[in-house]
Amino acid sequence: MITRDYLLKAMDKDKRVRVTIAHTTALVEEARRRHNTSATASAALGRVLTAALIMGSDLKNEKDALTIRVNGDGIAGPIVASVDSVGNGRAFISNPAADLPSCSPGKLAVGELVGKGGYLEVIKDIGLKQPFVGRVNLVSGEIAEDLSSYFLLSEQIPSLVALGVLVDTDLSIKAAGGLIIQAMPGADDTILGKIENNVLQMDSISTIMFRSKDLESFLPTIMGDIAYDVIAERPLAFKCTCSRERLAAILANLTREEITETIEQTGKLEVSCNFCGEVYQFSEQEIMDTKQKP
């Protein structure tokens, strides 16, 4: 069993195909715990968060960020994951208690929970005047197929995507991870066919993550007899960017009357972060002091 969350990038010797694989069990469990998600909601949330972390590994600069938004017509509601350039990610699902009966033994009904009607959107903030936004219609709601469609239609990169979350009977996360294989310019059908055939013969990605001792030992299964190099490795973690100061600044945009009315109606002044569920409580004086800061 893999004991840490991390990501590997590998490329064949001729630089025709790039493989990115990630183990995300602990961070998906952290997201599940914070949002108290159902089994199917955990699987949907974990897939989107894992995909965002894999895609975010291509960000170049310290302040770059990437967000995936999946907005289907299922009962899950919008699912959003946001990551930075160093392997930190956070995510939420609008209806964390949403659940459906399994499609078949061992297969959670993620596609039905998300819904086929709607879109998948990728937002890349890489320091330009406007962020790059790519959007495609959902294909299945299963996330992996939808991302393959996004890469092909929005970025013109043929890609194979596998994402998986294995949920235990107590709703904790037994294993989670993902794999994205992308053709580089000049890649021929032969090498792509070999790798695709290898992947199709594998167990599910979540099962592999549960049984493997590390990601390095799994790469030969993907590449087969194709020589390759590991070109990058990075740790991954669930980490939110919220802070007491940032949320106090948001509350400071309220008028004094709105703040007073809120306290009178609820007996408190608090705000919770959608991404991590952290709850911050403030006094009226604290917000007034924040309003006066330059």
3D architecture notes:
The chain has 294 residues and is α+β, with helices and mostly antiparallel strands. The protein has helices at residues 25-35, 39-56, 110-114, 144-154, 189-200, 205-211, 219-223, 244-251, 256-266, 284-292; strands at 6-12, 17-23, 65-72, 79-84, 88-93, 118-125, 132-137, 159-167, 173-183, 228-235, 237-238, 269-272, 279-282. It has a six-stranded mixed β-sheet, with helices on one face.
Features:
13 strands, alpha+beta, five-stranded antiparallel sheet, 33% helix, single chain, six-stranded mixed sheet, 294 residues, 10 helices
Low-confidence stretches: none
Shape: globular
For the biggest sheet, the summary is: 6 strands, mixed
In round numbers, the mean pLDDT is 93
Q: Tell me the strand order in the biggest sheet.
A: 7-6-3-4-5-11
Estimated share of beta-strand residues: 25-35%
Instruction: Supply the number of helical segments.
Output: 10
Give the SSE string: EEHHEEEHEEHEEHHHEEHHEEH
* Cα Rg: 21 Å
The residue fraction in helices comes out at 25-40%
End-to-end separation in angstroms reads 52 Å
Q: Structural class of the helices, strands and pairings?
A: alpha+beta
Number of strands: 13
Please give the structural blueprint.
Elements: E1 6-12, E2 17-23, H1 25-35, H2 39-56, E3 65-72, E4 79-84, E5 88-93, H3 110-114, E6 118-125, E7 132-137, H4 144-154, E8 159-167, E9 173-183, H5 189-200, H6 205-211, H7 219-223, E10 228-235, E11 237-238, H8 244-251, H9 256-266, E12 269-272, E13 279-282, H10 284-292
Helix pairs in contact: 1-2
